[in-house]
Each structure stands twice: as structure tokens, then as C-alpha cells.
């Protein structure tokens, strides 16, 4: 049975000290919707550092510069923020897809990111929005782009003693919007078989001037696909451009076959999702 | 491991209890506090039988540590209605025969109450989505949804 030492520090420094000085395995606890399940059947002593009492970890501030998202804010609170939804509708949709009402009451975007599952729904949406992770640890602070944060299945670039303290999402340029879509066999409560997050910027005559395309659940980590974005930039997002972006996303994907989908299916579907998400993002951008 | 001392409000009464830091809130409620109305279906957040509210927010108590309850207000199914006066939601579940084995029922009652507090006039689709995290292996959901919609109407009328 797992034996737990529980601490709930009230400052980031307090959390870092606990994590850095521990002599046993440490785990940060946000909403626990991954962690508490993962601790079942573990046979060791663990230091669990609950970060929900730390000011800033649970807040979100929207300004002209963008969104400073406290990584542990429960998704129920995040998705209820109409001001945030107006600016990043795709990211909010991705957060809303996680689990049931009950899971939403606890799960967080930071937990989704730090759990670093290939199928995590918010990761492609964060990458599409150019989000950055602010990480603090005994060695100070560093900032890492979300596409570089996750390094493998359930692995990320954080070292012992480090904590994700903020997710910084730049304010989108004028006429920019985003969308996130995933494929699941059911209508809710399922894990993505493939996912796509797209952000597009349009000029006054509807030509795409900037884009970011990210795909999930089709490789060991979510991927930023610059080739797919390039296929959209300079076009009016006509069928040929959308198909070229879809093809680029399919080509970049490196999926596996498991009981929820085959390589062939995932490769195809991720392209379809990129196409559809790009269309939705463009409609929202006001093209 | 030393047990941790926790103080929390449970169904309006301040309770002090000890819990093992690795215990879930579900285990604490059932084994430490004797509140066995909250059920365990899966222990992994999938079934909603363990639904409770913490500070008014619906959660799965199997995915919360007991020690996290410190200083919070928790509501369980035992806080809804009384043995001589059922809550409207409970009455409607009986009236519509919205249960068979009953293992999912406490979680559904708690979740329905949370739904109707947030949205007193849900569409059937909204109710079905909100309650999608409460699994029932017996009824096929139809009678549950009828009970929920009827309870919503009655509660709106009574307000
Ligand atoms: C029924 C159910 C359905 C689900 N459905 C989905 C779904 O559809 N899509 C999806 O993507 N996920 C889904 N999940 C998985 C999970 O809910 C999400 O990954 C969620 O976002 C995790 O957030 P959390 O706050 O609960 O994280 P926790 O469980 O608290 O933490 C997750 C991991 O991240 C670490 N961590 C958390 N915060 C930090 C931090 N600030 N710094 C450093 N490390 C940190 C923890 O140590 C742990 O390893 C589901 C889970 C359940 C139980
Ligand atoms: S027992 Fe908690 S969700 Fe099933
Ligand atoms: S009545 Fe048996 S699970 Fe719902």
C-alpha cells in the first residue's frame, strides 16, 4: 500500500523546498484526477505536495498581454470564465472535454500538461495558442514552450524540485481565433483517439496571415506541425489549402495501433480534424 | 504512518476526525465517519457513485484525499432530505422508479441536486450531459432523466 506524507504549503518557495529536499519520491497534487488513481497499488512512501493553497496557482488573469493561468485552477472554474472563452474559445473547449462534471470540479490544465499523456486534450490547444510554461525550482525560474515541455509518454522536462507555477498564453493578434477538436468513439467521457488544435489569423480580406497547428494522440507527445500552418498561410483557406494542411498533419503524425484506433485510421482522422478545426477557427476569427 | 487530524463541516455539522494521509475522502466518509450512503463503484472517477460536493462543487470523493477536506464544507447524500421528509429529488426518483439495484442512486441524487442548483431549468440534453459521469448499469437512464426533469419542474414551481 502507498503510504503518504501530505503537505499543503502556502507559498511556491515552500513547495520547492519540500520537493527539493525530500528523500522519498515526491508528487505534486493539483486536482488529483490522474495522481490519486496512479497512486493506487503503489508500494512505497510518497511525499504529496498539495499546491492548491498557494496563491496564484488557482487564479487566472486576463490582460492586454494575454492570459496568466494558474496551473491548478479547476477546469469547472476555468471553463466558466466567459472573458477567457471569448479570447481562447478552443482552449476552453479542450479543457471542457476532460472527464465528467465531477472530474471538471477538480481537474486542471496544469495537471493535464504535467501528467503529459499523449492524448491530453489541452496540450494541442495550448500549443496552438503559443503557450509557455513558467517552471520554478531550486535553480530559479525558466520558461519553456508547451511543445518542448512534454518529452515522452508521461515524461516532461521538469527536474526534481521543480514546479509548474504559471501558464502564460499570449494575447492573440487582431482577427485571430482558435479551435480544438478530438475524435472519440462515444459522445463524452472518453480519451482522444486523435486531436487537433488550430489557431489562425486573417487579414481584412480573409487571407490567412499566421497559423499554428498542433496534433494530439498521434505520437508519443503532442506535435506542433509548422508544415500544416505553412499550407494555410497566404491562402483564403480554400479546400486545396485545407487539404494540404490535413495532408501535412497526417504526414507528421506517428501514431500506434491500439484497441481504440489503428495507425491508418488515426493518420487519416487527424488530418480531417485539422481541416475542420481550421475552418471553425477561421469562422471565429471573423473571416 | 501517523494519522492526520482533520476538521471539516459535513452536512452542516463541524466534524473532527483522523485519517490516514493516503485515504481517499470516500474511504474517510465510509470507514471513519460511518457515512456509507456514498458508494464506491470504480474508485477511478468513472462511475460517479461516490459523488459529493466540496464547498458547493460536485466531485468524485474517490479522487480526493481525506486530508484535503480540512476546512471545507462537504455535503453527502445523508445531508439531502430526512428519513421522515424526503427531498423532492428523492421523491421523484421513487415516483418514477428511477432505480433498480440502487448503487448509483446516492451519487445521482447528489449530482442532480448540484445540477438543479446550477441550472434550475435544464433541457433534457443539458441534464444528460451534466449527469454523464453518473453511470447506471440497471435502468437504461430513461427513468432517471424523467425523474430529474420532473424534480426540476416541481422545484421551479415551488420556488
Ligand atoms: C473519469 C476521467 C476522465 C478523464 N477524461 C480525460 C479527457 O477526456 N481528456 C484528458 O486529457 N484527460 C482526461 N482525464 C485525465 C485527467 O483528468 C486530466 O489529465 C487532468 O487535467 C489532470 O489534472 P489534475 O489537476 O487532476 O492533475 P493531478 O492528478 O493533480 O496531477 C497530474 C500529474 O501532474 C503533476 N502536476 C500537477 N500539477 C503540477 C504542477 N503545477 N507542477 C508540477 N507537476 C504537477 C502531478 O504530480 C501528477 O503527476 C480523465 C480522468 C478521469 C478520472
Ligand atoms: S467510485 Fe468514484 S467515480 Fe466510481
Ligand atoms: S440502479 Fe443499479 S446501477 Fe443504477
Brief account:
Chain A is α+β, with helices and mostly antiparallel strands and 287 residues long.
Topology:
The complex is a heterodimer of chains A (287) and B (159).
Chain A: E1 3-7, H1 12-21, E2 25-29, H2 35-38, E3 45-50, E4 60-62, E5 66-69, H3 75-78, H4 82-87, H5 89-96, H6 101-104, H7 109-115, H8 122-128, E6 132-137, E7 140-145, H9 146-149, E8 150-152, E9 155-156, E10 163-170, E11 176-183, E12 194-202, E13 208-216, E14 223-224, H10 226-232, H11 239-252, H12 263-285
Parallel strand pairs in A: 1-3, 2-3
Antiparallel strand pairs in A: 4-5, 5-10, 6-7, 6-10, 8-9, 11-12, 12-13, 13-14
Helix pairs in contact in A: 10-11, 11-12
Chain B: E1 4-10, E2 13-19, H1 25-32, E3 51-54, E4 57-60, E5 73-75, H2 88-95, H3 105-118, H4 124-130, H5 142-158
Parallel strand pairs in B: 1-5
Antiparallel strand pairs in B: 1-2, 3-4, 3-5
Helix pairs in contact in B: 2-5
Bound molecules: flavin-adenine dinucleotide (FAD) and FE2/S2 (inorganic) cluster (2 copies).
The site of one FE2/S2 (inorganic) cluster has 10 residues of chain B, from loops.
Structure notes:
The complex is a heterodimer of chains A (287) and B (159). Chain A folds into 3 domains: 3-50, Uridine Diphospho-n-acetylenolpyruvylglucosamine Reductase, domain 2 (2-Layer Sandwich); 60-170, Uridine Diphospho-n-acetylenolpyruvylglucosamine Reductase, domain 3, CATH 3.30.465.10; 176-285, CO dehydrogenase flavoprotein, C-terminal domain (Enolase-like, domain 1, 2-Layer Sandwich), CATH 3.30.390. Chain A is built from 12 helices and 14 strands. Chain A has helices at 12-21, 35-38, 75-78, 82-87, 89-96, 101-104, 109-115, 122-128, 146-149, 226-232, 239-252, 263-285, and strands at residues 3-7, 25-29, 45-50, 60-62, 66-69, 132-137, 140-145, 150-152, 155-156, 163-170, 176-183, 194-202, 208-216, 223-224. Chain A has a 5-stranded antiparallel beta sheet. In chain A, strands 11-12-13-14 form a 4-stranded antiparallel beta sheet, sandwiched between helices. A 3-stranded parallel beta sheet of chain A has the order 1-3-2, covered by helices on one side. Chain A starts with a strand and ends with a helix. Chain B has 2 domains: 4-79, Ubiquitin-like (UB roll) (Roll); 88-155, DNA polymerase, domain 1 (Orthogonal Bundle), CATH 1.10.150. In chain B, 34% of the residues lie in helices and 16% in strands. Chain B has 5 helices and 5 strands; from the N terminus they run E-E-H-E-E-E-H-H-H-H. Chain B has helices spanning 25-32, 88-95, 105-118, 124-130, 142-158; strands at residues 4-10, 13-19, 51-54, 57-60, 73-75. Chain B has a 5-stranded mixed beta sheet with strand order 2-1-5-3-4, sandwiched between helices. In chain B, a hairpin with a 2-residue loop joins strand 3 (51-54) and strand 4 (57-60). In chain B, helix 2 (88-95) packs across helix 5 (142-158). The interface between A and B is medium-sized, with 29 and 33 residues. One FE2/S2 (inorganic) cluster (FES) binds at residues 99-104, 136-139 of chain B.
